[in-house]
Design goal:
about 40% helix; 8-stranded mixed sheet; about 325 residues; Rossmann fold; globular; alpha/beta
């Protein structure tokens, strides 16, 4: 049975992994954000965790029309009400527009209807923040997407790929009338990508169906999905004639979020002592979404600093192979 081979890390890569444990406070914050009045921002998974804090910061400080794409209607509508109360208190802002579009990235058939609903509401999309994701899910058959993919690959990579493909036309058209650097796609990855199989994808068993359901293999499968997000961010500009759109990836930071739902009590105890609040991760997302220092293909790390990715993920031939495979997988749902 083939097993994943994880490349060893260079000193620079180890340094970045360790950077997440001791991080300076964010320097690019609300005081630096543009107004975004009349602009539209979509945040996937914006009803909880980092996404919630990102939506709150956008709604409180930028005047953008913000939409949350998420699965749970009741939970999201409650989150929107909570955000409005919090921004009234923290930012002295009332009546900010925050919309909701229901989508379940566990089921690719829900993505196109969600995009169609959004396009009935808006004719533009300026910034897309691909924040939603799952982590360390079991590798058993019970934890497969509706289409049969390993949960992290299906939700974190294929869900993002299909959503972005369907939103590409409106993003690109909007970018033609925007100042350079305003239109952006932010792919939320992780420094966990350093644990991904060589090349990012474990082609011999990308669904991890033949691998034991161990903590190590769960992390490698998660790392595979996060490497996939980096490859998507780097490849998107090469596959689209859209020079006004910045596509970049991030590691938001080592944060305590609902992504730890599948962790053991011991892991949760350790995580509590080495992580930062979700609000800090929002500053990383918004650095990638708004900072004039970010360019296409960049990778940003906590909490708004330039970072690097594992060397093999810079191979364009390998990235093209992944991109073409992803396109094949989503084609039935376009």
């Amino acid at each position: 049975m083939a097993t994943p081979i994880v490349p060893s890390k260079s000193w620079a890569e180890w340094k970045q992994v360790l950077h997440g444990l001791w991080v300076s406070p964010p320097s690019f914050t609300e005081k630096d954000y543009p107004s975004l009045e009349g602009k539209v921002v979509v945040v996937t998974g914006g009803n909880t965790g980092i996404g919630y804090q990102t939506v709150k910061s956008l709604a409180g400080s930028t005047k953008a029309r913000v939409y949350i794409f998420s699965r749970n209607r009741e939970k999201t509508l409650k989150a929107i009400e909570d955000i409005k109360l919090e921004i009234a208190k923290e930012y002295n802002v009332v009546d900010r527009e925050i919309g909701f579009v229901q989508v379940d990235f566990n089921d690719l058939t829900t993505v196109k209807p969600a995009v169609e609903e959004f396009l009935k509401l808006e004719t533009r999309l300026d910034i897309l923040i691909l924040n939603a994701g799952v982590m360390n899910t079991p590798l058993t058959s019970a934890y497969r997407t509706k289409q049969g993919y390993e949960m992290q690959l299906g939700v974190n990579v294929l869900g993002d790929h299909l959503l972005t493909a369907l939103l590409d036309p409106v993003i690109i058209e909007t970018s033609k009338t925007n100042p350079p650097g305003l239109s952006r796609i932010v792919w939320v990855s992780s420094s966990a990508h350093y644990m991904a199989p060589k090349g990012g994808i474990f082609w011999e068993d990308y669904n991890f169906e033949k691998q034991p359901d161990t903590k190590s293999n769960r992390m490698i499968a998660y790392a595979q999905s996060k490497a996939g997000n980096i490859l998507q961010a780097k490849t998107w500009p090469r596959k689209h004639d859209a020079p006004n759109v910045i596509s970049s990836s991030i590691c938001p930071g080592y944060l305590m979020t609902e992504l730890q739902r599948y962790s053991s009590p011991v892991e949760l105890f350790i995580t509590k002592w080495i992580t930062y609040p979700c609000r800090n991760g929002a500053y990383t997302e918004l650095y990638a979404a708004l900072s004039p220092d970010v360019k296409s293909g960049d990778h940003s790390i906590s909490f708004g600093q330039p970072g690097i990715v594992r060397g093999d993920l810079n191979d364009e031939a390998n990235a093209d192979k992944v991109w073409d495979w992803l396109n094949e997988q989503i084609e039935p749902y376009l």
